[in-house]
Every structure is written in C-alpha cells, then in structure tokens.
Amino acid sequence: MAKYQSARQLAETQPDEPVFCIRPHAVRRAASWFSDNFPGQTYYAVKANPEPWLLKAAWAGGIDHFDVASLSEIRLVRELFPAATLAFMHPIKAERAIAEAYSEHGVRIFSLDTEEELDKILRATGNASDLTLVVRLAVASHGAHVPLTSKFGIHPALAPSLLGRVRQAAAKLGISFHVGSQSLASGAYDAAIALAQNAVVEAGVILDILDVGGGFPAAYPGMLPLPMSAYVDEISRRFEPFLSTGNSELWCEPGRAISAEGASLLVKVEARRGDCLYLNDGTYGALYDAGALDWVYPVRNVSRGGILTDFSFYGPTCDSADKMEGPFSLPEDTQAGDYIEIGQLGAYGRCMATRFNGYGDYAEAACTDDPFGSVFIQDNEQIWEAIQ
User: Are residues 230 and 109 in the same domain?
Assistant: First the structure.
C-alpha cells in the first residue's frame, strides 16, 4: 500500500477514484485509550468498521474482545484472532447462526431481549451450562444523534421476569443497554445504569455483568463531544455504588469512538453548480450517513484555501436522492478538479457503501499524519478549530 504524509500529498497524484486515507496509528491510539482508561472490559463493536487493517490496529492497542453481530463478523474475527473473546450481541439471531457460533467458533456470550430468544439460544446450544447471557434493556436516547430505542431492548418494567428466568439458565448473567449512537450527554449513562439497577433489584438476582454498550462519540461539526474521560468518569462514578458491584464486571462496546479517526476519504469534485458540488462518492457510497441522516462531516479542500462558504454535495449516481445537504464549509472558489478530504469516515464509511450504478470502488493509501478533529490528542477548543 502506498504511503503519504497527508491527504494533501496524496491529492497531488490526482486519483480519479475516491481514496480512503487510512491511519492505523489513530485506531491504535483510541483502542489504547479505552484499554488504559475504561475501568472494565472493552469490546470493540465490529459493525462500525470490520476492515482487517482496523481490527489489527485495535488488537495492537490492547483490544482482544469483540462485539459481533453476524456470522460473517464472527468468522472474520476468529480467523484473524483465534484467541479473541467474541460476544454475539445482536438480540435477534438465526438459530443456525447461534449453533455455529457456539459449536464452531467458541462463542459463549449471547445477547437477548425476549424469552423466545432465550429458548432459541438454549435449543441451539443444547442447553449448554457455560453460557453468558446478557439481557438488553430499552433505555432513552436523550442527547444521541442516532436514537436506538425502538428496535431492540425489553422495557424496564418487563425486565425483572426475563432476568429471573435467564439467571436460572446462565452461568453468568448480564444486563446491557445502548444510549444511542453519537451520544453527547454523559448523563445518559447515569440514567440508564439507574434503570438497570432498578431492574436487578426488582428481579432479586445476582448480576455478573453490567454492559453500558456504545454511544461514545467522535468529533463532527455541530456535534462536539465532551472529553472522552467525562463519559468514562460518569460511568465509573455511577457503577461504584451499583448493587452488584462486588460481583459484577463492567463492559463497554465502543465502535465509532475507536474507528472514526482511523480513516478519511479523499474525493474529487467533478462539477460545480452554484453552491452544489458533484463528487465521485456519495449517499450510496461511503457518505450514506451524510445523505440519509444529514450527518455533517468535517471537510477541507486540500487543493486550495480561502474564505469559507457553505456547500451541499451530490454523489455520482443518477439518483437525485444522492444528495448530502450539509452544510459543508469549504473555500468559496472551490471548483471542478479540486480534492476534498472528508474526515471521521473510519466509522460507518466503507462498510455502508453499495454498488448502485456501478460505483463503490475505492483505493486505499496510508497517511502518516494525525486525523483532524481527534478527541484523543486535542482539547475541545483545538478539536473545534480542526473540524471547521
């Protein structure tokens, strides 16, 4: 793989296809931060970015536990890291997938949020006696830019009954939740842990694991997070008096926070029409969140500088829905032929891309500089300046 000092240097080669500028050192730094600072076990959420280079960088940073959501992810991680601990944390799984995960890949940790899923797990594993079963609780997503309250999780009022039955079946019992992706409010973890505490008290069970899930944020324009330590400190403070603290392990499942800074995307401006720039990647590619969720990524024109103004983007497909409103702040004289670096695309970037209209091909190059807008090496004021 070619190596460059920066995306700016890469742009001088005038690539015609979009290029992922990968920074394994940034992933390793983020993984090391969680390994060193989270007061429990960190499981990397593979769905955020399953690329082997990123998984290896996370492993080098001390992550040897992985949150997997499919057989494909299980097979990939097990092939790369035979000794890794895998947790199958999708609450609704195919029975065949559970059986293969258990019998062929050594998976012993499974998530669920219904009695039906519990029955399925027990059937698929032959009523195994070595299971760690984690009940997912539905909690509010206040402060999260992607709420995750409607699809999974048992209502707290119904959780005690399920916890009681799972306690009888599991060698280890856990409870988990997800406060929502890109959660900016550290208090969200406090509120969720309180709900978990109440459910455990009502159920009258001994809990082995409290899993606070993901939601740890990265830095984007308009979504500037608190220092990462603020979220971890809040979790640690609230966990300390937790009823089962003496018996319970503390887990977390960061995805975005570990992967986001690991890659940016270098795209080419193919045309300009007013305040709209037509790029060689878009909503059906790595910029899905920018189009579908109106996500505003940090951007910079590596071909020119100048006074900034706001633009929208169009992707390369023939679909008019392939539009990203932004606003994306770039030099006002940005024009066709310029190259734009889009940051924080190590998370939910390439793994979201499709082959619609024949697009979806990417080159890769290593960049040795640091990502702009790192929450792990800069304070908030510097982050804000970097992502503007």
Answer: yes
